[in-house]
Amino acid sequence: MAARHGIPGKKFVMVIDLAKCKNARKCVTACQKMHYQPEDKEWLQVKLMKDNEEGAPYWFPKTCFHCDNPPCVKVCPVDATFKRDDGLVLIDNDRCIGCKFCMAACPYSTRVFNWAEPEQPEEISMCHSSPETSVPSKVGTVDKCDFCPDMSRRGLLPDCVTSCPNGVFYFGDANEDAVSNGTETVRFKKLLSDRGGYRYLEELGTEPRVYYLPPTDRMFPWERGLDGLSEEQKALYDDIL
Amino acid sequence: MEISPFDKLLSKFKHPIAQPSRSWWMLFAIMLAFVAIGLVALVDQIVHGHQVTGMRDHVVWGVFIVNFIFFLGIGYSGAIMASVFHLTRIRWSKPLHRIVEQFALMGLIVGPVFIFLCIGRLDRILYIFTYARIQSPITWDVMAIMTNLVFIATYLYIAHIRDFAKLRDTTVLEISSWKKKLFEKLSLGYTGRPEQIKALNRAQNILAVTVLFTAILADSLLAWLFGMSLRPGWHSTLFAPEFILVALYSGVALLIVLMWIYRQQYKLNDVITDQHFQIMGFTLLLFCFGFAYLTLSECITEWYNVSETHRRWIGKFLDFNEYGYMSLATVAFAVGFPLIVLVIPRFRTPGSITVISVLILIGLWLKRYLIIVPTLETPFVPMQDLRPEYVHYQATWVEWALTLAGIGSSVLILMLLNLFAPVIPVADLEHDDEIVVPKPFYETLK
Fold first, then answer.
1. Helical packing angle, B63-88 and B397-420, nearest 10°
2. What is the model's pLDDT at position A13?
3. d(Cα B335, Cα B296) in Å, to the nearest integer?
4. Bridge partner list, A48
5. In the list A5, A37, A179, B137, which could disulfide-bond A41, CB 3.0-4.6 Å?
6. Where are the alpha helices (DSSP H) in B89-193?
7. Beta strands in chain A (DSSP E)
8. Rounded to the nearest 5°, which phi and psi values hold at B203?
9. Are A206 and A70 in contact (CB under 8 A)?
10. Residue B433 to residues B158, B429, B437: CA-CA distances in angstroms?
11. Which helix (H) or strand (E) holds A230?
12. A37 in contact with B at a CB cutoff of 8 Å?
């Protein structure tokens, strides 16, 4: 099954530029639209982070990191979640037994569970599921960000990348050493070395395939991300600020 | 004809072996009702999905897993105690053997049920075998539980053979003919011939050693289910020994509770003596110190110098808006009260030792809750979730109903086992000399 082996010759990577994110959340909604997810199911989340007392807060979009040493894949008892040759970690939700061990194992809280029958259009829930589309969701199984390999097969970028108004997400192939945010295509390694790219929680040894560029020379003050949020939503960040 | 003391002892088990009493049926009905309540909850969970539980994306496991660990702990500790009692030939422990063997089986049957309740797609449960991946600690655990279940069931049966033979031949109990026939089948023609004694002893020795090692390994595997994770609070090298110690502590407590119940029920004061309570009380004290020591060791190293996530996690045990009260209750039930009762001789009566055993069981259940829930509520990435039920776990009626059903089915299993054999291995006591016990050297000097 091709979906289990990956796209030959590829090694997908993502670079997220924290200097450009202002919590516009277009990535979140685009992802939800593409995968027919309801508003409260976020495969891609934007967190507000602050590294230390004196540090400035910054917005932190978080996808699945598609780790090269994935704790979730290790623990899956039935090979429902697996690592492909092109670097992606995907889920076969026809195989998943819903033990949630992968969710307990993932240190990044990436995975979401279908606690009830998922709300999705009938024509979607009827269609054949594939690990490459992660659609349709199935009750009692686990979902997560899949890096949209179905788009890659068509030579397109994932929707989170193209929907971002600020070009935060760069997606590409480490073998080609090229990543693109839809408007510019740059050298992957050069981008990391020029901008001090790092991986989140490197010390855990999971070897993520997602790199972050630190929020230096920001395009926006972080407070812009609070625009339009309700008081209730702002209150979520109380313990960070 | 004079009745031997062992026949007299056997006759105490007239109810329920020959004829269950009215109170037996009443308890049976109540426990069945518990199970029925659980079944209603289970139907609700199957129809509406796991959203009817308190489990959500952060706290993916809750009371079900707590019960899973608790009951498996009971099972493994029963298995370890049964084999230690047998292998060390501790004579005074003889009357207690069957009690621990029975709850070993009970724990290993009820525990795994709770893991099934946790699984989102029960319809795919067989994938665990058809697509098994040996890398997964779940696969290890499945193998460990099944292995232990087979060994414990076999051990329990082997340990019953002498009693089945006695029940087959007995005249002191009026046993219905179908049961007589069953005992005849189950006793495998055992009549106490020397070669039968030898074979039985050998089988029991081999099984006891096997059970001992597999139970220790299986409880360690259970601990590693969590220990292999990167999460603060779980990623601990101490976990396997801690799980075994906590399991044994809860097993001794349950043994004491059952000793008290059976002593009252069957009037066994001369078989399960006050001294038994004293000795098991001291055993309890030993495990109490062990538990206190491990808890201290865990807390002090986590508290003294820790990463930010660890600090958030350990802080929850000291915060009375989080798990402060539960931590306090755990320490009070599993360390504080037992120390007061067990250290002061005046308080060491069978009744009070039984009461603190109940408290210890509650305390150790809470300990398992504190192992599971606070850790899952402390992820590395800030939760920042608008949905309160995703941030804080709160068990729902479904989970409590199924917990009640777990308790109900445990009692039912013990009651059903007691229909077919006395809780005291009467024939083993009678033929005490058939099991080789080294004679102390001074006996020859006397």
1. 30
2. 98
3. 11
4. A59
5. A37
6. 97-118, 127-130, 137-169, 177-186
7. 12-17, 45-49, 58-62, 81-83, 89-91, 112-113, 142-143, 169-173, 178-180, 185-187, 210-213
8. -60, -40
9. yes
10. 18, 9, 8
11. none
12. no
> In the beta sheet, which residues pair with residue A142?
A113
Is residue A237 within 8 Å of B385, Cβ to Cβ? no
The answer to whether the CB of A132 falls within 8 A of the CB of A149 is: yes
* Residue B432: CA count within 13 A, CB half-sphere: 13
Domain boundaries, chain B: 13-52, 63-227, 229-383
Which among B121, B128, B382 has the least Cβ separation from residue A141?
B121
State the nearest Cα–Cα gap between A76 and chain B, in angstroms: 6
Angle at B225 between CA B219 and CA B228, to 5 degrees: 120
CA-based nearest distance A228→chain B, Å: 16
Distance CA B218, CA B148 (A): 8
How confident is the model over B195-239, as pLDDT tens digits? 999 999 999 999 999 999 999 999 999 999 999 999 989 999 999
Output the DSSP codes for B85-117. Answer: HHHHT-GGGGGGHHHHHHHHHHHHHHHHHHHHH
Q: CB B133: neighbour CB atoms within 10 A?
A: 17
Q: What is the DSSP letter of A135?
A: B
Instruction: Say if residue B96's pLDDT is above 90.
Output: yes
Which DSSP string corresponds to A180-211?
E-SS-EEEHHHHHHHHT-B-TTGGG----SEE
The helix-helix angle for B308-318 and B350-376 (nearest 10°) equals 140
Distance CA A191, CA A186 (A): 7
Asked whether the beta carbons of B117 and B63 are under 8 A apart, the reply is no
**Chain A residue with minimal CA distance to B119?**
A99
In words, the CATH class of domain A2-235 is alpha beta
Whether the predicted pLDDT of B140 surpasses 70? yes
Contacts of A96 in chain B (CB under 8 A): 120-121, 124
Give the tens place of pLDDT for each residue, B399-414: 999 999 999 999 999 9
Number of DSSP helices (H) and strands (E) in chain B, helices first: 19, 0
| DSSP letters for B225-258 | HHHTS-STTT--TTHHHHHHHHHHHHHHHHHHHH
- Let me know: does B61 contact B69? Beta carbons within 8 Å: no
Per domain, the residue ranges of chain A are 2-235
User: Which chain B residues are within 8 Å of A100, Cβ to Cβ?
Assistant: 55, 60-61, 118, 120
> Do residues B82 and B101 touch, judged by C-beta distance below 8 A?
yes
Q: Identify whether the C-beta of residue A111 lies closer than 8 Å to the C-beta of residue A144.
A: yes
- What averages of pLDDT result for each successive group of 10 residues across chain A (241 residues)? 90 97 96 95 96 93 98 96 97 96 96 95 91 94 96 96 97 97 96 97 96 95 92 90 80
Query: Nearest-CA distance from A196 to chain B in Å?
Result: 22
| Token pair 């026939």: residue | B181
CATH number for the domain whose boundaries are B63-227: 1.20.1630.10
The helix (run of H) or strand (run of E) holding residue A33 is: helix A26-34
A233 touches B at CB < 8 Å: yes
How far is the C-alpha of B301 from the C-alpha of B294, rounded, in Å? 11
Q: Does A49 touch chain B (CB under 8 A)?
A: yes
- Residue that is written with structure tokens 């655990």 in the block: B141
Amino acid at B349: T
Q: How far is CA B27 from CA A60, B390, B400, B406, B408, in A?
A: 58, 39, 20, 15, 10
Q: What's the pTM? A: 0.96
Residues of B in contact with A80 (CB under 8 A): 127, 131
Q: Tell me, what amino acid is at B429?
A: L
Q: Does A237 touch chain B (CB under 8 A)?
A: yes
